[in-house]
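User: ok so my PI wants both of these folded by tonight, can you help

Assistant: No problem, let's get them done. Here's the first:
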Amino acid sequence: MIFRSLKMAGFKSFAEAAEVDIESGLTGIVGPNGCGKSNIVEGLRWVMGESSARQMRGGEMDDVIFAGTEQRPARNLAEITLELDNRKRSAPAEFNNSDDIEITRKIERGKGSSYYVNAKPARARDIQLLFADVASGARSSGIVSQGRIGAIVGAKPTDRRALLEEAANIRGLHARRHEAELRLRSAESNLERLDDVIAGLIEQRDSLKKQARQAARYRSVADRIRKAEAQLLLASWTAATAELTAADADLKQAKLVVEERTQLAAKSATARAEISASLPPLRQAEAEKAAAYQRLSIGREELDREEERLQQAIQQLTDRQAQLNSDIARETSLRDDANTAIQQLNDEASQLANDIAEATPRQAETAQNLEAARASATVADAALADASAALRAAANTRATLTNRQNDITARQAAASASLAGLATDELVQQAETAATEQIAAEADFHAVNKALETADTELTTATAAAEAAETARRDSAAQIARLQAEIDALQYLLADQEDGEARPVIDQLAVRNGMEIALAAYLAEELSLPVGTGRRGYWQSTPQKTDLQPPAGTTALADYVSGVPALTTSLAGVGVIDDAAQAESLQKQLRPGQAITSKDGSLWRWDGFVRLASQANKNAERIRQRQRLDQLQTELTTIVKKAETDQSHAQQTQDALTQCQANLRECRAARHAAEKKYGEMRRQAESDALKAEAAQLRAAELDQTLHDLTATLADCEAEIAALGDDAALTATETAARNTAEVAREALTAAMQAESRLAETIKNAENRRRTCEQEAKAWQLRLDGTTGRIAELENRLADSVQEQKRLDDLPDSIAKRRMEIADQLERAEHARQEASDALRFAENKLAEAEALQRDADTSLADAREIQIRTEGQQERCTSRLSDLKARIFEKLNCAPDAVAGIADADDPSSLPGIDVLEGRVQKLIRERDTIGPVNLRAEAEMGDVTTRITSMETERDDLLAAIAKLRAAISQLNREGRERLLKSFAEVNQHFKTLFNKLFGGGTAELQLTDADDPLEAGLEILASPPGKRLQSLSLLSGGEQALTALAIIFAVFLTNPAPICVLDEVDAPLDDSNVVRFCDLLRDICSQTDTRFLVITHHRMTMARMDRLFGITMEQRGVSKLVSVDLQTAERIRDIAVA
């Protein structure tokens, strides 16, 4: 599949729709920091199935939706569409029907995300597997985000194995294996639960057998309890009916008494009402007189309060006049003080203005002196700086040359010592010996590997055989359990009901061709009798001989019955026929002792008796059950023998499996040891070869270094000799320093004089402004004092006038008090007369009320008696209703039918209720001693047996599914190991080539650590840049680590090229020369594969090597915008324009 374009809308900072064309070659994405370049990478990962919000730099997945800015509102929907070219038909089968594939992922705020493939809904897992199968995906090595280089460097070896898995394209295998393992664990868990359930059901079935026997006894006791309860309810119903009749008579008598006393109470109430009607006018008159008297009393009290308020008002006016006189005197004093303060402040301000005018000319002169002193100091300081700089430069140059001379001498000595210490010949001989040992270890490793594969194959075969044998053993055990369960159920159903009774003939005979119902129709209950002796009856063991034959046109029933010779005489004259009409016509011709029966259970006897077929016949069913029991016991014997054989075979296969497992463990141990030895030999050989090569290169480097150092030392000695004497420079620097100090002292004195004069003028000006402000404040206070004095004098005049008016009011109040006293005396006399008339009428009303209370009491007593009588009647009626409900609940019939159930024609002949209750309780105790009873035990036992059979079938299915899953997982593991080992060799080779190209030399290799199982091994990266020893990736410098990580990433690409590669600022830690190598490498990979590159960069050299550029801008804060430039097209246009 080929990636063609990426469309985004509402995703992170891309508020509007944006489209990135993913074309062949190198596509660059540029822009300032924070403009949204990495959002394109995250959008690509998101549409390919990324499910972690943390990987998307968010707290929750809704954070990928555009969150809005100050100018733009937030969006509720984000959508990304990835267009793929599928003309090569490399997609999975369900998506492989079209040339173009559009994968869309949408997310709505608060509702989650959904996937669509060509506008059809799809699962996230389907999308992830689709990209995993083409070496891509949200977390594939083809998407190198910021920090990925550091993650590879800092990762554990086991984490780096993901790079090899990506190269081997086994991510899809891992996903399928994980899914199969989950299913296997689920199936094994279900099998364990199913075994537990089957064991529990078997225990339940055994318990139900006992419960069925208890249920039969329980039913017998329950029938007796039903009859006893019916007798008790019948006696209770009879007694309750008699009580209800008596209660009806008492209620009738009580109603007559209540009626008489009601008439008497009505007369008393009428008399009381007449007296009550005369009271309201009297009460109204008395209330009016009392109200008039009360109004006059209130008027007198109001005069007293008015007189008191008048005295208080006069006193308040007096106090107010005194306060006003005091306030006028205080305001007059304040006015005098303000006039004095204003005069003083005006005089001080005039004096300060004169002082400022005198000091201003001196300030200009002081400023001129300061500028002159500052200029002199600046010139002196410049001269001092120049002299000091010249002296320091000469000293530094001399010290630098001396240090350089010493360093060159030391380096010459170190290089000579290193050259002398190199043992090149010994290292070459050691490398040849290690290479020979590596070849021998590799041969041993391949031999052990072959033995391990053979042992693995034998284990797979033994496992399949053991599982097949175990399945056969479990099948036999399941059949035995199933047959035994059916046998137990039939034995329980056929168990004898009475101990000591001989075996009935029904359990001894055998019937063929479905004649069980015909035989049961003829012999009926006689089949339940034994042969020889019996308490209820029996068949004689030696029957009398007879010459009876079956009727003409019928089949002899005796021909289908065997096993009981005692029935020969009884069955001699019995024939079987299918046509009922023919049987009726033949019945008239039957001889004594002859009979005709049919397969459906009808019977026609010689004496004219006819019994038609019924739906069920227990004796026929018992015969069939007995025959089925015999058949099952025969089958059980056969299957038990087969189960013993299966058990023996299963044990043999299990022993063989154990032996194969032991062999496999031994082979794995041997393989581990051989692999460890091979790895050590290989590492030793490579290390020795690298040491020898490095020693040779080091020797050549040291020779060149000694030659260069000799020439450099001669140049350095010449420069030291060219330097002159420093004494003249020192004298010049001392003279300049003295001149600068004198200039600085003069500048300091001028600055102090200028500062003191400026401070004096400033203080005088501030005080002058303060005096003016204080004078204005005192003037405002003076103006306010004059107005307040006028206001206080006006208020004093008003107070004097008000006091004159109040002095005339006490005489008016005394005159009004005398008038109210006369009116009060007359009102009191009128009120007393009205009160006496009202009291007389109320006494008469009290007498009438006493008579009415007596009548009401008598009526209440009569009504209480009536209510008690009604209550008794209701209780009797309620008791009858309760008894009726109990009868229906206990017996499910009406009260009229209880006598039939109780078997009592005359209820009066029954014992007392106490005796009947004791009898019921005794039977209930007898039932309780039986204990808990399951009346549905027989039906439940049948259901449990059916469930056991069904679950055993499910168990067989689970065993088959588990075997298939284990085989599938084993196959996936085998295929994964093969792919991983093959890809490791290819990746290692590509890695060595790319490392040499990026570093311009050096060596590197990949090693598998803890490689007992390649699928669990770690990946160690060893590198030796030019001039350095072979060491781990973590020990290299930052730039070397970045280049090495890029080499391993692109090695994976060359092994399993992905359709797209995204590089997010991976060139950031590289210098210019390494960036050139990096860009050359990208060009080489583009020419070798169909991979399309998206490169996010800030480096100008990387931008220049791109085929096209997409620019990300952010004209509005928080909103990204996409612009594009095709550099190849631009170059062609430029060339045409120049031509």
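One down. Here's the second:
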Amino acid sequence: MRIVAITHYPGALRCFIDTAAHLDRTVPGWGSLTLFDSAQPLGDADALAGAVSSADAVIVDLMRSDPAWQDALAPILDGYPGHLLPFGMQFAGQTRLGQFRLAPGTMPPMMLGAPPEPPRGVDDSQARRDAMTFSRLARAYRTMRGGDALFVLGTLLRDYGDQPGLDVPEPSPQTPGVHLADPATRARYASAEDYLAAHPGPKGRPVVALLYNGVSYPTDPEPVAARLAEALSGDAWVLPVAIETDAASAVDRILELCATPGLEPDLVVTLMSFRFGAGPTGGDADHGVAALNRLGVPYLSPILLTRTTAEEWLHHSNGLGPSEVLVSVMLPEFDGAINQIPIAAMTPPRHDARHRVDTAELQVIDEQLNRLVGRVRGLLRLRGLANADKRVCLIGYDYPAGEGNLLAASQLDVAESIAAILAELHRTGYRTQPVTAARLRADLMAGQVNSPAYLTEVQPLTYPHRQAQADLGDQQAWDEVTRAWPADGPRPMVDSDGDYLIPHVEYGNVLVGVQPGRAPEVDDALAHDNTVPPHPQYLAYYTWLQHVWRADVIVHVGTHGTLEFLKSKENAVSVHDFPDLMVGDIPHVYLYYAGNPAEALLARRRSHATLVSYQPPVMTSGGLHDELEELAEALAAYRRSHAMTSQSSEDQLADLRQRAERAHLPTDPDQLEGELERLRAQLIPLGLHVFGSHWDAGEVAYMVAGVIGNGVGDLAPGYELMAAADGLEAERIHRLSEAEIARYDEAAKRLVEVALTSQAPAADLAGDETSRAVIVRARELALRFAANQEWEFLHRALSGRHVEARLGGDAIRNPEVLPSGASLYQFDPRQVPSALAARRGAEMAAQIVEVYRDGHGGAWPSCVGLVLWGLETTRTHGETYAQVMSLIGVRRAPSRRPGLPGWEVIPREELPGPRVDVVVTISGFFRDLFGTLVEELDDMFAAVAALDEPDEINPIAARTRQLRQHLLDGGMTEPETRELSHVRVFGPPPELYATGLTDVIDTGNWSSTTDLAEHFTQGAQHLYSRHRHGEKVPGLYRGHLADVQLVAQCRSSNEHHITDLDHYFEFLGGMSAGVAAARGEAVPTLVTDTTGRRVHTATAADAARAGLYAQLFNPAWVEAMLAHGHQGVGEIAERTTNLLGLAATTGEMADWMFDAVCDRFLGDPEMLRRLREANPHATAAIAGRLLEANRRDLWQACEERIDTLENVQFDTDAGLEGAGETGA
């Protein structure tokens, strides 16, 4: 009998080899066994086809295999007449064994964890016997212990081959369920009593529950579980639990075992991938989450590297591949898992020459196992300490280094938050003292600042460099740091003896520290450079916290520091990666902005952080102010006059146009009306959040109105609901003017006000169903927004308890991200794009095409450039991703099935026009968080490029053919050109998350826009596809940029306009500059805003104008920021730098924008006084940045303004010197 086995399962390969050798010895002439390892890339497809076609029986399991295997096997197996045993999901519908056939679309019961049983609906007795045999074979295959391989091959030979008298052993005992176990002996125990009879109880020691897969499939984890249990036993009593059933069925039994009196766990460690309560075949994840919350103890999820050796993993910067990240990292994060530390990997492959396959097994990585055990020890210690005995380290930031940036974080007033935390810790029994934010800042400014620009009253504590080296105890790390930062080069924060400065202040058992900067001020480009080790003082600082100050827990305060950006893998970090080394075994808590799950996950994954989220500042309508309010009144007056007398209206129209010109807004009344209404309605953040603080009733009402106005869930935007309640049909609602929208939006706001101020039932307040639904939803939202769980979850984290996880994102788009406090996870990439994102993405695509056609005589663009961010994808659930799909002519599949793409190519006849090629520039966060989507995008481009369509309909295919020929002419091989010619996704190198252009602008290390274009192009040229990760192909990205006819990006954040975040000028501006340099001419730069009631596309200049009017020029925003003093002025300074960056990269920022910044903040004596009093360092920075803009010809400033700016700089420096803060 000729048997072929195609499997990724190392245990099966190993056992089949041994069993074939046994059969050769005991049953001469039994037949042949041909093996294919589908965990490896597909090699000789002809050999595969030949082996399968001539086989009598084929075993196939492609669960973790490259899709090429399925593609190659599909046509072969389609007409295959022999026995076909699919032991995975692929080809299950073609199962054939004797008379048994599995109905297409069904899953064998044993694949779901159920025991073999007679199949229902099979009447033929032989077919029923064959079905039972198939079920037993599949169970034995998945167990693969003892004589299981002989049972599989022997049964095929005896019952379906020519060895009817063969003696076949019974398979390993099948004991589906959840069992207390001894992983060292593989023993299973029927009850807790039986287990305790063989293993004496904890006797007061902490208990650690260890969950692991008790079945050998797909790799055998039990030997690893045995080693881990032994290692943990030095610090705890271990309760091993072997799971041999489906995930959903296991949860209640695990809870039952963990509720055994005396065995209640202090901590749970799981070696299972996927969700707690849900696996690859489904389950009940919500039940699992509820169970973990009920247990209330930390849930640790170390990683088993089942697809790589330890040596390969150590030397790969990307850690895990996309599918491994999904099942081993991302899905456990949904359950609040922490400490995702690799502890085992595959042994180096052992080659079997006869069968031409390699075999391997899991093996513990000792140093990684020790790190996990150390972190368990740290959590158990934290759980056992009284609050009064805990030593808590609170870390704030100061980068770029200097006084002006001390204690800054996204959306958080760090000084006030630390003061609030100190007060709360004092209240709950920690040995510390309350201090005000002003005193805290003064204590730090007195000498505890990174690389201060001015001499200070005191010097920070020094840490002798020899002691630091000895305390670290890691010579490899020390050598790496000192090689990168030699003693004769720049080394920040060292004294004249080479000892390290440790800026901090202590309030009892609580230390407030200042995280080291990444680099000297002259090179802050290193702040997020993941390729360069930290400087010696950075390493020394965290070594001091661990070994000298002996912190019991480290808390990083705010989004975000630089710890997680130190040299490291993208995920699955090792003990040699610097974020891991810095925190060591100390429990790590990170207070992170709930609106930024993308970067939060980096902190969790790289630095083993327990995340505690904080809410955004309150969001409210920006409204119209100053000249905008006057302009709106003039427009209203013109409208009234136009309806009465033509002569009067003409005069008013002329006045209106003059006013509009002075405000740099459209002069056409209709266009002006639309722009003013968009400015009036856009939401802005007011101030900064203070950790633990609640919104008051008025602020809750603002948030509810914002959500209702934009629409939420199944509730359309407020104006649509009010218009429908008014009797308008959908088509008429779609054609409403901005003014009409505003009127209906006001009606929705009034309804919200009624809902929140009245106690009456909704039925008594509104006569129509739509209005009642708004009232009900408004009240639900108010309850959600009034809650705040930040203190609750911070206390849990500081006590070594479980912190549950929730979806992070924009609270206006998705209110379910609140209340804050819980840990964070991202939107499931398997659901990208959502149905709503797909609709909005199509609208975004249509709008940028329309803008291009309006400016090019109706011609369609053939190629556009889009920026695709991870945070935007998480926030919008894939709007830009869907925009790419729409442009190239791809859509979501009607239904998603395992093993099949979730998309399909739109037929040519259904397209609204030609396809549009897209050059996609991704951020590093998109690469790391959505690796499966990178592969999917590559598949889409390949599919569209392969279509046989005219060039004018399919420029993707046309450009791919041209590029392939160009690459061939350049000496590249045919297989390489076939793969590279359709690649359209580019981004930063694997070690980095951006291009570094922000740091170039910050430091001023550039001469011309050409320099910036070159820096961006060099930084973003790394290609990403299904088979390539961050490679550089010289000229490939630049060549694509030369074909781009417009550049666009989505604005998805209510918190940030393009003037409020530096990464907009880095990516949008950088790509615009890169395209202009590659083409030799500028192209339109567009911003599509999806935060409002309607998708709206504008030029970068108009988008910047909207951002300036919304925040920097808005008195309400400015006053809210100045209420936060030092940090508020820093926010203003940041936006000034962003404006310069946009001007430098896009060339579209007008002089009036800089004029207004100068006049409003530095030309107004009272405002200047307030800025200087709050933060003189940042005030000087604003003046310096404006002078730089003038010097670089980005702003043509008048002499009077230049004099003002120079005087501000001089007077500010003089003031600081006079205050004793400066010396040399």
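Residues 109-118, 521-525, 1220-1224 have pLDDT under 50 and may be disordered. The longest strand covers residues 237-244. Good luck tonight!
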